[in-house]
Amino acid sequence: MPQFTPTGSHMRALVKTAPGVGMDLVDRPVPSIGDHDVLIKVHHAGVCGTDLHIWEWDAWAAGRLRPPVVIGHEFAGEVVDLGADARRDGLLAIGDVVTAEGHIICGHCLPCRTGHGHLCVRTQIIGVDRDGAFADYISMPASNVMGLDGIPTDIGAIMDPVGNAVHTVLEGGEVPGSTVLIIGCGPIGCFAVGVAKAAGAALVIASDFNPVRRELATMMGADHTFDPASDDVVARVREVTGGIGVDLVCEMSGHPAGHAQAFAAARPGARVNLLGTPSRTTEVDFARDIIFKGLTLYGVTGRKMYSTWIQMRRLLASGRFDPAPVVTHRFPLDRIADAIGVIKDGSAGKVILEIAT
Ligand SMILES: [Zn+2]
Ligand SMILES: [Zn+2]
Description:
The protein is an alpha/beta fold. Helix content is 29%, strand content 26%. The strands form four sheets. Strands 3, 5, 6, 9, 10, 17 and 18 form a seven-stranded mixed sheet that branches. It has a six-stranded parallel sheet with strand order 13-12-11-14-15-16, sandwiched between helices. Strands 2-1-4 form a three-stranded antiparallel sheet, with no helix packed on it. Helix 6 crosses helix 12.
């Protein structure tokens, strides 16, 4: 893969240049900025499952992306230029260390106008629908940018998935003193374990087939970890909850078996917050599993704009929640193939690209 050094108005960018497997490291112009935008020099970026789908060019990616597009939606860096209006607002300045919400919303549709911007019907995602952050520079609307308040950029770069965890765990607002089951311990599931502990859960149980992920969940504070391959997860959850089941289930796997376990392990009257996205329809016994159990279900999309971000920034700044143990690998931009490889083979927690050196 060719090596590029950013010079003048050019930069390095990982681009899906055409339909098919992989990404290319190419020389691109530094993005121009509009009046309401800021230009950010990217320091760190997070690599996630979405990027794996894009790398592999699966059916979802083929149906959604329109190459060429710069990949990457999780990042943090430094403001290096501001458009005229963003400058006049005075909320951001050159040199500010920031991250950004990667979902760019319209502000005009019904969800946007009723305080549910994370459900905007015209959402554009950076690194998917428009140019993203696996590059030396990215242009972002100033309204999407969040100051890091002293949080380092390698943590700032993963506030997108950490925010998914914060949203999933805290929706419902009854975590203190509660019992929580996290199904699926990918990076977001592991973050969710730490968020639940920081928010005062009395008991946090985590399940995953992958021993590396169970170990990370334990490091993040899980009181029990179960392996669905050898443990009857629902029976074990009942054992450690006085026979009744948990107050809150966070379903992070998206697997049909995960959904069945989520509903079965929930106590009567529990809440099930669903983040994992199934790749196909699944069968649910609504009468037995949901209606007569009085469950509350909640579908988690992204991060609430911007209450999730504000809660998360406070949690991180307080030191009560530290996602750092979940970060297992760091690579330079030109080793994206290795970053994708460790995600694909299941040996990684969270993977970060170190872009500014
Ligand atoms: Zn992501
Ligand atoms: Zn909207």
